[in-house]
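We emphasize that the prediction below concerns an isolated chain of 566 residues; any contacts that depend on oligomerization or on bound cofactors are therefore not represented. The input was used exactly as deposited, without trimming of termini.
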Amino acid sequence: MKTILTTLNAKYIHTSLALRWLYVANKDAFDISFKEYVLKEDVLMIADDLLAEKPDIVGIGIYIWNVEKCRQLIVTLKKRRPELIIIVGGPEVSYEPEFFLNDPVDFVISGEGEFVLGELLGALENNLPKADINIECISTRHCISRKTAKADLKKLTTLPSPYQLKEDLKNRIVYFETSRGCPYSCSYCLSSLETGARFFPLPYIFDNLTCLIHHNARQIKFLDRTFNLNHTHTQAIFDFLIAQYRPDLCFQFEIYADLLDRQLIAYLNQKLPPHYFRFEIGIQSTHEPTNQAVNRKQDFETLSENIRQLTEGGKIDLHLDLIAGLPYETFDRFKKSFNDVFALRAKEVQLGFLKMLRGVSLRRYAPLFGYQYNEKAPYEITCHDHLTADEVERIHAAESALEKYWNSGKFKRTMETLFDTAYKNRYFELFDAIGQYYQKHNLPNHGYLLEDIFRNLHYFLLSENIDLFPTLRKDYYACFKIRPHGFWEKAIDKKQQKKLLSHIGNDQAFLACHHLSRKIIEKQTAIDPLEENHYLLTVFCDDQSRENPLFLTYALPSHITTNLKP
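Result of the prediction step, given as a token string:
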């Protein structure tokens, strides 16, 4: 029997480690292969592609981001080939298998399916009737299993490596795991349903990382729910990766910042090359009654101090997570959580919204907090007893502004200026005000051009009697490697611009002082007026040894200004 495993990734750059594990665990015993697609692809075309392979069995990995489209795919496949056997697995189906058996699904695998899938494929090849297949962690319409599979990690290490398949990974994210499970019990998280953590042996980890590092992987993301849970394990892997440093490679980890110790932080700040590591740190809320309500253990004082030390070290890119809509957190209290976290000035602050995932305990107790949420994935909440629907929408608008004006990294000078002046210690208030401005003026949150979001911020600031145009202009220029059109109306026409740049390109003293050439000035420089007879030169010199673009001020000698003015 021919089996194809598949899933729909969110983007092309993503890869599915789960498919690769299932494949290597079963490829020697069965006729099995895997194919990946992305969400933007048409369901009918995906079905055509799969059915062209003439499979007897299709296994589909289902997650919160692809569940609705996967359900469409299942219906399409079964309509075209009713005899096709459909097996589904993944976090989205593991804890409420009966819900998905309402679709034309034959089998649901709950949990880690590497070896359970082999048992099922063996039973199918032996032509056992569906009603007679009774395998632990597998559900059918005849028998629902409430157990979730846990694979033997030592047994997994004896299989061909899922990390060493012959693939071109240069432009894709490689997912890697050094452990499975999570010791914490946050009631909104699926990881809370897995008791304890299990670790792969270090020699196995080092062998596979070596293979990925020496090939063309550019970004490796560790899937461990709490990477730094075990200090010895963590230190050993950090030591190994630092020793294997490669300039065009980045590693990403989910870190529980409370568990970091000063010695490890000092070590990383001293030994790490810049931007080699990226830490994702979940904070979610700084309101202790909220943390207690969702069984989240957190020492914000310790966490904050550890993050400050990492920030001061300047080596690690930090990504901090917040969740809007947690119990007991009003709009004003959420604002405080946001400002507490943003004050740590991480490179990115991810503002997510609470989702009532299938299987988590918070979904079962949702009525106690007055939660209302969408019945379709991603099951996002719309309100609760302490947060109205209008307030949730307002936070959504602020989140959109946060993504454009902070997380994009394109407005660093402007944002830092605002946070040092008009919006000092009022971080959420700024993004909230921008979000409300967008809504009031019906400005699009998607499909915009870069100059539009700069222009929109400029007009927003003017509406607040704040003029940061010179700073905003520098941020705009810094987004480009070649001379761009501006988002503002030019104060100098093309003819005058050419005359000014020609004059500057012949100023040998100025060129020598700044190590520039006439060609760079005339072809790769933008010019804008400042105060009387002074000009801002933005030089796109593509010189990695210094700032690019380079911002210079040029003073035009007063005795020749009349010859160069229109």
